[in-house]
Design brief:
The longest helix is centred in the C-terminal third of the chain and has 23 residues, at about 370-390. This protein has an eleven-stranded mixed β-sheet with strand order 1-3-2-4-6-5-10-11-9-7-8, with helices on both faces. α2 (about 20-40) runs antiparallel to α3, α5 (about 155-160) runs parallel beside α6 (about 180-185) and α9 packs across α11 (about 350-365). It has about 475 residues and is of the alpha/beta class. β10 and β11 form a beta hairpin. The protein is about 40% helix and about 15% strand. Bound molecules: glutamine (GLN). Glutamine binds near residues 130, 173 and 177. Glutamine (GLN) binds next to loops.
Length: about 475
Amino acid sequence: MLYTLTAHDLSEKLKSREISAAELTKAQLDRIAKAEPEVESLLTVTAEEAIKKAEEVDKKLARGEAVSPLAGIPMAIKDNISTKDVRTTCASKMLYNYVPPYNATVAERLFAADAIMIGKANMDEFAMGSSTENSYFKKTKNPRNTAHVPGGSSGGSAAAVAADEAVFALGSDTGGSIRQPASFCGVVGMKPTYGLVSRYGLIAFASSLDQIGPITKDVRDCATVLSVISGKDAKDSTSLSSDVPDYLGALTGECKGMRIGIPKEYFSDAVDPDVRRAVLDAAKAYEAMGACLVECTLPMLDYALETYYLISSAEASSNLARYDGVRYGFRAEGCKDLEELFLRTRSEGFGQEVKRRIMLGTFVLSSGYYDAYYKKAQKTRTLICRDFARVFENVDCILTPTSPCTAWKFGEKSADPVQMYLADICTVSVNIAGLPALSMPCGTDAAGLPIGVQLIGGRLRDDVILRAAYALEQNGKGGR
Ligand code: GLN
């Protein structure tokens, strides 16, 4: 089946004219029609635009023009990434009718590379959550077992790729939202170094942590998508001006001599035994390939969750202040004055989890509590960064589980927010330190649900983790 193939396989077929882009897009839309009633990964399907774009790509191919490796490849974009003239909701009632007048830089770059957007992916409201159950619109199912959540907050993006509804997808990762759903759905997901990929047009959750990245069927596709979306953007002042390395060139299949850190804090009893076994098996596979495993320690992990939830909520409370019903989005009807308009718009427009974060964030930023919470979290942030810097003096990358557990059943954690937050323990430190990290499949648990291994790299060493991930995949580990 065409829709089961990777982008690099499809690209070969397109370039040799064995298939046409229009044919591929139609096959993809048929697949969506079949899988979507069960999986519900997409909030909007852009069928007409996709077919039109595919026909344009076919014309380019017919003229023998040089095309990008993503030309003609159907993909989905998370619904917090702005797409011109296509509804972008953040899975919130607050933005149920919002149609951006411009494209996010990442969307612009994918379109310029002739990738074909087939739809916008479901997510936790404003990217807050770990299961996609916080979407205002629908519950996305895990395609590996539909009684289980797909992870979150990019659950729609990961489920779309796992269910073959898209060849690849973009997600956003503030504290694990690309890596954890990729791990739960058995696909590859990468959060690049902070600043490598432009955030222009990404609807902000926590600006100092947010980063956009690829969710793909294999590591080669991940490297390809990253090459297309990364690099300096004058529209994002936090985007880095450093040159983009040759990510595809990093995929040698070799990892001999690579030093891989195994931090003991990530293998405690809090991690499911099945997860620990599969991730340590991946470590052993590296050793067998000639890499060197180095025991290391990241003691500040104890403070990572608190630091993350304080900083991210503080930033969210400020970023979400703009939704007031005045300029765009949802507006409460029949208000008698401005104050009632603000109050009712925000009360009715935001879901429970978003309100919880706004309240927590406003609290930790308020005078009297700022020093005790927000400032302390910033200090801990520095200590977490130093922890990583010390370990990276001696290793090339760090190997950990992506999540302490596999995908849970619907409703299992949604009654207790702290239980939900605890599930983020393995991913949040990476965002706090601005480092690149990738999750790839490394086995399944007793129930057959996917397990993900996380590879963390030094700052701007996105190429190193891609190299390590590719070597593991070539070794027969990490396939879907
Ligand atoms: N689960 C985390 C949260 O709820 C991470 C979300 C994200 O990365 N966007 O904040």
